[in-house]
Amino acid sequence: MRKTVEDLSSVLSLNFEERDSSYKGGEYFLARDERVQEVTVESNWEDDEGFMSEPNFKEYSTLVYFNGISDEAWELPSGLRWIVLLRVEEI
What we know:
Layout: H1 2-12, E1 17-21, E2 26-33, E3 36-43, E4 62-69
Antiparallel strand pairs: 1-2, 2-3, 3-4
């Protein structure tokens, strides 16, 4: 997870804060700026009852969520082409 944070931070010029939340399975990282409301890097964790945070994507141990992203920032830079887009939700 830390390597993902380092890569995102470097390529997108974001400053991530380390945080902890039982709701998010423990340690996670959060960044915000004018291009995106929130970016979080989290593990695809399993709770005490065996439920994963993203059960449809069990093969991915690290998840990156982009929330409130501007249209201009939507396309990922070439340095992040290893990120696989799993889902897009518009609210």
